[in-house]
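Task card 7
Instruction: Convert sequence to structure tokens.
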Amino acid sequence: MATLSPMSARPRPFRLEARAIDWRLVALLLAYPFAFKLAHMAASPWGGAHFFSLWYPAAGVRLALLWRIGARYTPVLIVEECVIQLLTGTIVSDGPEFLNQLGGVARAPAAYGLMIALVRFIERRSRSELAIAPMPFGLAAVLAPTLVSFTAGFWEWLWPGVSGTLPSQPIATTIAAFLVGDLLGVLLVAPPLLWIGTRREEARRLMQIGRGRAVEAAAVFVFAWLLAWGLARVEPQIAVTPVLIGAIWVGLRCGRLGAWIAIILSAAIILPWSAPLSASATRFALHMGLAAMAIATYLAGSFAEAQIRAREDIARRDRILFQAERLKTLRAMSVAIIHEISQPLSTLAIETRHLSALSRDPQPDPAEMRESIELVDRKAALLADMVRRLRSFGGRAVDEPSPIIVGQMLRDCAGMVGGEARSLGCAISLPPMDARLQVTGHEIELTQILLNLLRNAMLAAPGSTIEIALESRADQVTIHVANPVPSPSPDYGGMGIGLLVARAIADAHGGTLSRDIAQGRARASLSLPRTEPSHD
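Output:
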């Protein structure tokens, strides 16, 4: 029989680990059944045969809460909705349709929770545009009502109720009515509920609508409603069509907030108009048009914001990529730079010892001391200049766009790779340059392009002369970096990630970067817009 060691036989102390209670979550769950019932009752004026309402705000309350707290609380919401409907008499516990009614209440939050869980799963796993916020919520706002409406339609088709007294309606009508009611409830109510308590950064992004865009969108929306008013006097069923187009434009230009404002303004016009209508077909058509407009508008606003976020992410990744490529170039230059620094340091050490010896001489030679001091000053300035170049090139910050003298930038680049060029046996040939020739841009990024081109040329042709040529036109400056290649010349098909980074930087500056091989020479050409020098 196995025996326990004294250590293993020692009883473990019992600890009760108390978790902090999320009182905000508790308050939301306690308030939910009352908010749900009030929203449920507010929808009664738009009721009809075999469907509760063509505008169902309770669905928006449900979706907002499940999206905020998570689909795992779906069973809690199912219990709460069933209890509140029992307590208020919507479900009769001793009636013949009790089980059917109880299932009808439970299936809606169950379908919402299932769809929210699925959308959240897609958001975590997918890399497509649909996973970029705020598109996931837009998908859930459309797909959850769709799932619950089809579930309700087929539920009534398979199990219409034990009493058989429910009016006979086509299943398509039931599904469409349920879908319209839930969609309008979700898209009108859920967004503002979720915007309450949003983070400052999210609120700032939501409110970031330019004045020009807002005026343009408002003008288009008002014009669309004027067309709708004219159509409503002839054919009310198609009156919402121009509003659909105008509201989509608002969503694309102003994001989710603009989309929701367009939706709520349209609902404020259509819902009071449709409530007293006796013709169910007309009211149904108006609500279907409003639902279609709400879906398209909110998804358009969500897509517009998702595109902005995607562009911001791409720009941020480009900056990281630029910095990584810059550090890669800096690392490759480090050995040569160390060699460049060691020579001035040796000279400084020698000259300082010489000055020390002169200072001990009773009658020092002033000319000799002045010559040594000037040499020390030149070498110290050279070291300071090298350190400045390295700090600016390897630093994380990106400089602001400014006028750049092309000749000075080329001389700086040639100086930075001078040590590496000597170690590879290369010589860099600089052309005569006009001091007035300049471009506007980020000096660090343009320096990065030129360093990449020079290093690629030296690595491709060690022991040769790398020629830099400068070509200027009225509105453009082109820098050529050429090196010899073996004959026949192989086409390397680019320069890897360095070429991609260089081309991205050139594009961002309104220029181009090209590469060609002809007559035994490879040439990379960087073209940039020319800037006229200031005469201040």
